[in-house]
Amino acid sequence: MEAVRRHQRITATEVRAPQSERLRRRKRWYFALMGACLALILLAWNVVRLWSSTAAVAMSVVAALLPPIAVIIGNWGEDR
Length: 80
Fold this sequence. Notes:
It comes from Nocardioides panacihumi. With 80 residues, the protein is mainly α.
């Protein structure tokens, strides 16, 4: 039994990424989503409303849904 264990290969594939790397990734996603939210609002009411107010309202609804999603993604997996 000992001879079998001695020759087994040990890999580090199941090791989690460092916390700083996970935090950096979550921050990137959070700021990307919040930037998209800001861009949608600005485009909707400065550009798109000139052609279609319905499209501007739809863009605003999508923009309103992005901040809660960004917060969920920003805090994902920290309770483990």
